[in-house]
Amino acid sequence: MIVASASRRESDVVDNDDFLALDDQLDDAECSVRDTVRAYATEHFLPRVDDWYQSGELPRQIAKELGGLGVLGMQLDGYGCANASPAAYGVACRELEAVDSGLRSFLSVQSCLAMYAIHRWGDEDQRREWLPGMASGDALGCFGLTEPESGSDPSSMRTVARRDGGDWVIDGTKAWMSNGTIADVAIIWAGTERGPRGFLMPTSAPGYTATEIRDKLSLRASVSTNLRLENVRVPASAMLPLARGLKAPLSCLNEARFGIVWGLAGAARTCYTAALRYAGRRRQFGRPIAGFQLTQRKLATMVVELTYAGLTALRLAQLKRDGTLTPEQISLGKLANARSAIEVARAARTILGANGITLAHPVARHLANLDAVLTVEGTEEVHQLIIGRAVTGISAFR
Fold first, then answer.
1. Structural domain boundaries, residue 97
2. Is Oxidoreductase one of the keywords UniProt gives this record (predicted)?
């Protein structure tokens, strides 16, 4: 579980990876989450992440480890969840993605796409049945919205659910589901006569067939799956009763996007610190390359982008805490921080030279991941159009 920890070092004038001392804005509980998750991730996940990346897997046991840390569904209240602040959840995402985007993605899918869907849109029986086990990591969830022909436009989904007596029968396909082959329950969104609805579907149900995507070159320390549903029968009680229309699944995506905003700052921090250390010890022309003006220009630009990302994440957490955060503001944060993180990673790779493309350093792995995170939970273009609609009052989607 999360334990207390010391505050930021008072003797530091400038913290190399927190130039404006943004973490001084965190309260004691949020600092405790930061330090506990960072320490555990560094000791237990970092030594294994290269093997996971090379083998293209993330072990199911990660759920129990994260459950032991108290971070699964930590932003929710009750049912074994911690009711933590937005910033506390954010720093947990940041410290996990500082190791690898796959870890943060695992947390996002479990906490925001699966658990939040049940907590916000389910009934009391569904919450009691699933949430305690999901908070501990004993039960794992996944989320099925994206389809082979329906990505940025979920209204065009082809998966359908039809009534058959007292049951629902669901047919269709889903694509790019994280954890679909290792989950216990899937949150499946399907069209009905009354519009899109969400269903809790045990992955052991006959007709549920998940196939892992193995040929990925990004987010390799993550389980991605395609799903086929053939006459999958679930009882009427499997429907999320409060989820009517696309507002429900989109709300889950916004929960996940908030965590991504923080996670991107963690990936950028790792790339920057790796480049800074390397520049200090790599010598050319008789001195460390950190002493050359062009290298310092790169490092300074990275500090600025890293600080932008941290400021954006912190401000969104404040707005979320106050209950005023809008989907458009989340889109701005996701778009801005993805761009900043990628710029930092690319600059870091150039400082490391050819060494930067090996797994001896974390930069190329993060750079490959970030290229996918740029489009995960909404592409760059979609977020631009969301912001554009907000400032003009005109929708460019249709």
1. 22-136
2. yes
Three-class SS of 30-77 = HHHHHHHHHHHHHHHHHHHHHHHHHHCCCCCCHHHHHHHHCCCCCCCE
Asked if 353 and 386 sit in the same domain, the reply is: yes
- Provide the domain count of the chain: 3
> Catalytic residues, which ones?
377
Backbone angles phi, psi at 32, to 5 degrees: -65, -45
Whether 16 is in a domain gets the answer no
The model's pTM is 0.94
Q: Look at residues 191, 221, 244 and tell me which one is the last residue of a structural domain.
A: 244
CATH code assigned at 308:
1.20.140.10
Return d(Cα 128, Cα 145) in angstroms, integer.
24
